[in-house]
Amino acid sequence: MRHPEPGSENERGRFAELQQRLGPLYRRVFADRLAPRTVVVVPSLSLDADIMAKVQGVAHYEERLLCLLLLLRMPYTRVVYATSVPIHASIIDYYLHLLAGVPHSHARQRLTLVACGESSPTPLTARILANRSVLRRLRAAIGDPALAHLVCFNVTSLERTLSVRLGIPLYGCDPRLADLGSKSSSRRIFKAAGVTTPDGFEALRDRQDVAAALAALKRRQPSLESAVVKLNDGFSGEGNAGFRFRPRDADADAEARIARRLPRSLLFEAADLTWELYADKLAQMGGIVEAFVTGDEVRSPSVQCRIDPRNVVEVVSTHEQVLGGRSGQVFVGCEFPADDRYRAELQHAGERVAEVLRERGVLGRFGVDFVVVREGGRWRPYAIEINLRKGGTTHPFLMLDFLTDGTYERETGLYRTPAGQARYYMATDNLHEQRYVGLSPDDLVGIAVEQELHFHAPSQEGVVFHLIGALEPHGKLGMVCIGADRERARRLYARTVDILDWEGSGRARRGRARAGLSQ
User: CA torsion, points 30, 319, 224, 179, in degrees to nearest 10?
Assistant: First the structure.
């Protein structure tokens, strides 16, 4: 079969035709647990390779969407999951055993795993498209394409081509709208939605643009101490750089001085990022400068929204983001839900942003990041950026939703189980300790069983691990700790970390060996 050339008008037209299937499919299938369907998951991080290379264990981030294996709780649902390299069998077993009431064998026969057989900086989607054998295996696993759709981490022209090659629609935003998720477009959309954003400048392309923006910002706010430079398509804060002003940076000739010292004055969030590489990325993708927001207390919550194939806007969750890095701009985890003192205001702002995005044709899940500042007794939110894709808060919430089969209560912003009980969680993608290196997936499962670090279906509380494949080679792990209130979730998180630290130290493993329990 001859396919349209990638990026051609014919391909874009074919993709638009496939997308027309989503609305009827959504109405007919999504709400019916007994309806047959096939979900093809391609968790490619089709993002800037140089920036992604700075993320420790990034090859294993393809595992974050393994939460979608929990769709197999529906008896006639099939899941096809593609990865760069095969996923350890114990990891697959771990997820399938989370399916309460579904026999392992029944779920496993409805799951097809397809691996390219190699890991490289090239996006997974690109490698799938270049491998005819993998494409054939994916097509064969789909079954009836009229009942199938494609799910990806983010959508670029690569994912559009894959959708057309597989002949199934993609539940995500058309790549022609991808720029709406850039830092520059985010600021424009916030203004269109009437949502406050930090003072700053967008559509910057080079060193002189950045220097001019910094100088202008300092002139507008003479007391401003710091600003942030952000690459338009940076990921999880890794494309951000801090800049500290000097007293004379508000002078008439400040722009030239700032331009001269930029290469040595920017504090990059990403490890080992150089000015030369950063300047090159700035020229390629553009960027922004904005004031670094400060106050009596500063927090970094986010709102997750969805525009479904019926064109309906929903707020699906809010989170407190846990940030790290040199100046606290890199996403490392989250707590659900956001603080009740400003949660309703965040939801309202997120809805206004979502309405603007809907008018522009956006489809699927996305997040809006905020900085919230306490000024006396009031919290003031500033919208920071739009992530027009799944993110670090997507899979923890999906875990909660799939495991409990509850409901997000829009009026309160709380999540309720079918019994009406609230559930909270604390989650991370970045539990990272050198002492964990060498702990295998089987070791982790053994620890979870021994220490009762697992999700308990009757109580609907407990721990669910992810990024398990990164544990042994990188000492890195993700987890979601679900509790009946915020403090229970935090205590469960702290207990889990303490146990893993003990296990990673080798003391517990030596004790097991003396007891004859080692493998």
Answer: -20
